[in-house]
Amino acid sequence: MAGLHLHLHLQTNLSRSSSPRPPSAYQPTTTLLNPTRNAPYWDSIYSDIHTHLKQSIPIREPATVYEPMHHLTFALPIATASALCVAACEAVGGHRDDSIVAASTIHLMHTTIHTHDNLLLSGKKISEPVSEISHKFSPGIELMTGDGILPFGFELLAGAVVNENDNDNSEKILKVVIEISRAMGAQGMINGGDDETSDEVGSDQWRGQPTRQLHGCGAACGAIMGGGSTEEIEQLRRFGVFVGKIQGVLSGKGGSGGGEMGLVEKWRGLAMKELGCFDSKRVEQISSIVNVLCD
Fold first, then answer.
1. What global pTM score does this model have?
2. What is the pLDDT of residues 159-201, one digit of tens each?
3. Long-range contacts for 55-63 (Cβ within 8 Å, ≥24 apart)?
């Protein structure tokens, strides 16, 4: 297949700027539930993704566009779905560098979702746990910037095709574009609730389902970039969905309900089952996320 061509341009006229934080070592800025930050392996992934995003989204002209984008991108901790992308790539024998662009794009998708879900609009019911992210820009600017971040993520992916004659890499990037498009589009929103979660936990668990779908997407994208087989991609996708379910329950409920924790244990077992056919040494790291989240 010929090289992938995606030409997406961010042309948004925004106003009201803020003083960006100077580049520094990665430090999460909210208290959103993410216990994997205590694990050295996962923390190294977050740091690598953060570094790549810093290089990809510098503050430049027009500042009215890039300052809000920079702020919203780095106001959130790096998404667990992004870390799963890198870990899944390594689990199928790939190298971290193979998946870092896809993982960065997954984070940008998470940023878009979170920005839309947390706009300061009167009468709007927030669909995720309330974060401590400061709103430095008006809702209109955040809305337009969030909309602009989405195509910028796809442009970031397209830029990863360095050699247009490298058909294998072009095919992988194209597959990742399709995966993310599905997760972020109508199909992803529908598939986010096509299982027993809402029936067993209740209607409150409809919260955060797009981000749960993003966990499965992230793991699948990592497996694709790592050269995994179709079976490995699907197994890691399902593993990622279970991780997203677990994190969604623990974030939304605080782990206080016995019924919810029973589901968490069920999903932990099902998640580990998806890794049963892999080389135990290769999946040692990615499997640790389940125990870290649950313990």
1. 0.76
2. 887 666 667 889 999 999 999 999 987 655 445 444 444 444 4
3. 56/104, 56/156, 57/152, 59/20, 62/13, 63/17
